[in-house]
Structure formats: C-alpha cells, structure tokens
Amino acid sequence: MRHLTKKRAVVLGVVASLAISAVAVAYxxxxxxxxxxxxxxxxxxxxxxxxxxxxxxxxxxxxxxxLDIKNTGSGSAFVNKVHLDGITADxxxxxxxxxxxxxxxxxxxxxxxxxxTLAAGATTSKSGSLAMNDTGVSQDSCQGATxxxxxxxN
Length: 154
Hints:
Layout: H1 6-24, E1 46-50, E2 61-71, E3 77-89, E4 107-108, E5 112-118, E6 123-132, E7 147-153
Antiparallel strand pairs: 1-2, 2-6, 3-5, 3-7, 4-6
C-alpha cells in the first residue's frame, strides 16, 4: 500500500474541492412570468387664502393683496400662478360693477406668479395688487361695498 504523501494529499484535496464546487454551482434555468400593481395619486386643489385686510379702494387706486397658497394634497404639486376668478359685492351693493376681466373692467388684478413645487402640506406666500379702475362712468353704487375675491391656481 502506498503512503499518502503531503504533495499527493494537497493535490487530492484540490481535485476534491473543484469537484464539489462544480456540483455546487450546477443549476437549471427556466423562464417565468408575474404581475404587479401600483397606484398613481391624484392632484388636489391648492388652498388660496387672502391674509390681509385691504384698505378702501377708490377709482384709480390699488391695494396689495397678500396670499397664502397651500398644497392640501399628499404629494408634491406645482403651482404656476394664482388668478383672480371674480369678485362679488355684498347684498346691499348688488348694482356695483364688479367686472374683473375684459376691456373696461371695474377691477383688475394681474396673475400672481408662484412658480413653485410645493411639498405635501407646504405653504408659500405671495402678493398681488387689486386695482379699482376709473371706468369713466359713475361708480357710486360701489361706495361702502364689501367685496369677496375668488381665486384659482394654474
């Protein structure tokens, strides 16, 4: 019987290790299929709040309107501009001309640029200017009126 020499034992160990490694990495391949799902959120309306009380307006004057714009959604939202949609006068001043667009409008306010992406729940503050225009006709029906301004964004 032959003796196992150190050199033969090392060679035999290396061969055995390689044989085991070859067996350990053997595998089958196959194809598969599956499905998944995701939900896309929806945008929500920005909450626009006037934060100051305006002084009295007179024909050919204007007042600063301070606005807070809040993202009420659960994701980020880009707010481009805030637009004055319209004006209403209190019930005692129904004859007041509250037009706010077009030629000869009694009141005007340029769009307020926001240009920000607001994180969920975030608020930014901006200012605009509301003007009572001189329409060239009597605006007496607006004297003492309380005006309600309506805004929209984007």
